[in-house]
Amino acid sequence: MNDTRTVLVTITGKDRPGVTSTLFDALGEFNVEVIDVEQIVIRGQLVLCILVTAGRDEGELRAAVHRAAARVGMHAEIRSGVGDNAPRAAGRSHVTLIGAPLRSGAMGAITGRITACGANIDRIFRLSKYPVTSIELHVSGAPTEKLRAELAAEAKLQGVDVAVQRSGLWRRAKRLIVMDVDSTLIQDEVIELLAERAGCLGEVAKVTEAAMRGELDFEQSLRERVALLAGLDASVIEDVRRAVRLAPGARTLIRTLKRLDYRCGIVSGGFTQVTDHLVAELGIDYSAANTLEIVDGRLTGRLVGPIIDRPGKAAALRRFAAEAGVPLSQTVAVGDGANDLDMLNAAGLGVAFNAKPVVREVADAVVNVPYLDTILFLLGLTRDEIEAADAEDDAEDSD
Question: Which domains does the chain have, with CATH numbers?
Answer without folding.
Answer: 5-82 (3.30.70.260), 93-169 (3.30.70.260), 176-363 (3.40.50.1000)
